[in-house]
Model the fold of this input.
Amino acid sequence: MSSMIRTAEFFGFKEIFIYDKNGLMKAPTNKKGRADMAHMAKVWTAGAIDHINIINVEHITTFLENYEGRIVGTVVNESATHLMDFQFESGDLIMVGSERDGLPSEIEAMLHEAIYIPARGVTDCLNVAVTFGIVVQQAVQVIV
Done:
């Protein structure tokens, strides 16, 4: 997540929405031997966390139902729109799922647009932060 926060801030995003269903962003309850989480977040994001508003999404389906722009998600499905053929618009919400499971099916059903980064190799899955970086780079080139 820290790489995605850093990437979003690098490309000029003012806010990032995080749905943390597994509680990865929560501070550990056992602080014995652990550095201060605020300090660690600053280190992990190379300071980007000080320049971007991180909005924690508690109820993802409610959030998506009320989102005013298009919901664009990455999927591992060759029938989705190729990333290079997709036209991003200002206000698009870019969603990426976990590396292991992708976007949950109930979230994928709520997408307005599904995009796909075709693999040239054998592996059909990129690291989620790498995927995010590729998609954001394409989005800012088109929107700017």
The chain has a mean pLDDT of 87. The CA atoms of residues 59 and 128 lie 21 Å apart. The chain has two domains: 1-58, 59-144. Residues 128-143 form the longest helix (16 residues).
